[in-house]
Design a protein that fits this description.
The protein is α/β, with parallel strands linked by helices. 35% of the residues lie in helices and 16% in strands. It is built from twelve helices and nine strands. The longest helix is centred in the first third of the chain and has 14 residues. The chain is globular and about 50 Å long.
């Protein structure tokens, strides 16, 4: 059975949404076994009981408590807690036996097989990720973060991480210096840092396949005859609910929440006490 290493970083508030993501991961990749590495600050072990129960279907949960490594001055908010930075230091925290790991945000649904992405040749790249920004915003981000002209501004919600190469070449000092120098210009801090500091070491992924969003769908579906929900179901491996438009909120705008609600519905049929709000007012 194929083994795939997954990384998630979050606080306790997002566990219930991570559980939905993991359920979709297992359902869409039944020929795989997963080691789920959870980097966190202070999640109590009892809070992960439901996650472990879900993973009995095909995976292991490996929580790792991240010690403070100099992030006290890094900008954080309720929406962007300290845990978001941990993925940048994945090579430090994860076992040396791992040569790569696939980072997944908890606010997404896995809709297809991940083997092709996971085994993508990384060569001299640190990260493989998709971009959601157009030409104008790419230029703005380039100026804001002093990026190379050819560097992509990526969404950090789905990233294949080359742990082996990062262990050899990454300097943590560079990260802290970037935060200190650009602190007042960081808007989406973790992906600002990854894009600004490692842009030339990022391999571009197919956004529609590996980081499909509601915004992408609403922008393209009206103009592309084949772009509909069935197209997404067949072609988008990962559907990402990034931003404030979350499918568990009653004011969700769009159509892609159907994938989230379908997964929750299956969870509820198997677990009578599972509760995630999927209704709209």
């Amino acid at each position: 059975m194929e083994k795939i290493n997954i990384l998630v970083t979050l606080d306790e508030n997002y566990i219930k949404y991570m559980n939905v993501m993991i359920t979709s991961l297992l359902e869409s990749n039944q020929g795989c076994a997963f080691d789920i590495y959870l980097l966190h600050t202070d999640i109590p072990d009892v809070a992960l009981n439901e996650t472990r129960n879900i993973l009995k279907a095909g995976g292991n949960l490996i929580p790792i408590k991240a010690e403070n490594i100099g992030l006290d001055d890094a900008p954080t908010t309720a929406r962007y807690p300290k845990e978001m930075y941990y993925r940048i230091f994945a090579a430090k925290y994860l076992p040396d036996t791992l040569d790569r790991v696939l980072y997944l945000d908890p606010d997404l649904i896995v809709n297809g097989e991940l083997g092709s992405l996971y085994h993508l040749p990384m060569d001299q790249y640190y990260f493989a990720a998709a971009s959601h920004t157009g030409q104008i915003m790419t230029m703005v981000n380039s100026l804001r973060l002093d990026m190379d002209d050819e560097s992509p501004y990526i969404n950090s919600g789905v990233m294949l991480i080359n742990l082996e190469l990062l262990r050899k070449e990454q300097r943590y000092k560079d990260v802290f210096e970037f935060i200190k120098k650009r602190k007042n210009f960081l808007i989406l801090p973790d992906q600002d840092i990854i894009s600004g500091l490692y842009g030339s070491k990022i391999l571009a992924l197919d956004t529609f396949k590996y980081n499909m969003t509601e915004n992408l769908y609403m922008t393209h579906a009206p103009f592309e005859k084949n772009m509909n929900i069935d197209w997404v179901r067949k072609n988008s491996v990962i559907i990402h609910y990034c931003g404030r438009n979350k499918p568990w909120k009653p004011n969700y705008i769009g159509q892609l929440d159907i994938f989230y609600k379908e997964t929750v519905s299956r969870m509820q049929s198997n677990q009578k006490d599972f509760k995630v709000n999927t209704t709209r007012k």
